[in-house]
Structure prediction request, 312 residues.
Amino acid sequence: MQLTYHTDYALRLLMYLALAGNRRATVEDVATSFGISRNHMMKVAHRLGRAGYVETIRGRSGGLRLKRDAGNIRVGAVVRDMEEGWQIVECFDSARNTCVIAGPCRLKGVFKEALAAYLAVLDRYTLADLMANTGQLGRRLGLGSAPVPKAAAPAF
Amino acid sequence: MQLTYHTDYALRLLMYLALAGNRRATVEDVATSFGISRNHMMKVAHRLGRAGYVETIRGRSGGLRLKRDAGNIRVGAVVRDMEEGWQIVECFDSARNTCVIAGPCRLKGVFKEALAAYLAVLDRYTLADLMANTGQLGRRLGLGSAPVPKAAAPAF
Prediction:
């Protein structure tokens, strides 16, 4: 029942960027703040970019920033986009299934229903909901506790 | 989001025994019917025995049988008893957590709620519910489609 490290790190990276606001944030910064390998974080940033969550600002003062407002990023959507192993039991993947009772057995339907209930909860929360304690989170990530200046915030 | 093979095989073994009823069923029979290694199935049977789902009948005509009625075995209970990795994200395990924002971050609470919703669905179904298509299941497992003779059923 564990999520992959990629999904876990993706949620951390998105939270970091939401807290950073318009301040410069590089893959290096995020990796260092969380004590995670830069290489892993780079791969996660690349996938989040392709999935439309973050964008890269090029140049000397470049870095990463959220492409959408934190209030418009659903936790369920991030988990769906990042996770790859949705085959709870073997028969979920008909190409690889070897179970002889797949078909008459009702287990697949029960697990599909359970998975839908799991994702429905995640869909109720946005990235912004995860970060109600902005001040504490910012301090722990070395981003300070000051709110992002509204006037200078990038328009996205 | 995958379950371990042990949990998957445990559910298959329990279904087999429910279908076999009072007929002799050995680990070998179950492993052969599902095309699974006998060694894996032996480990699963051992764990199910310790958790109180199956019992071993000793002697020449011995084997395994359900210790409880299939209608009294909840899918959620089996999954809880067999799965070991409930740490959806790193901060679920405080002894191993390295995430610096564990505490102020609300992700753990969201995933706990999602996991509870997932298990609540599994708790609504029993082993008996999984096997509505008794005839088809029995034929696929080489157990025939005849119902278990009531008079000879073991009293458990």
Remarks:
- Residues 107-123 of chain A form the longest helix (17 residues).
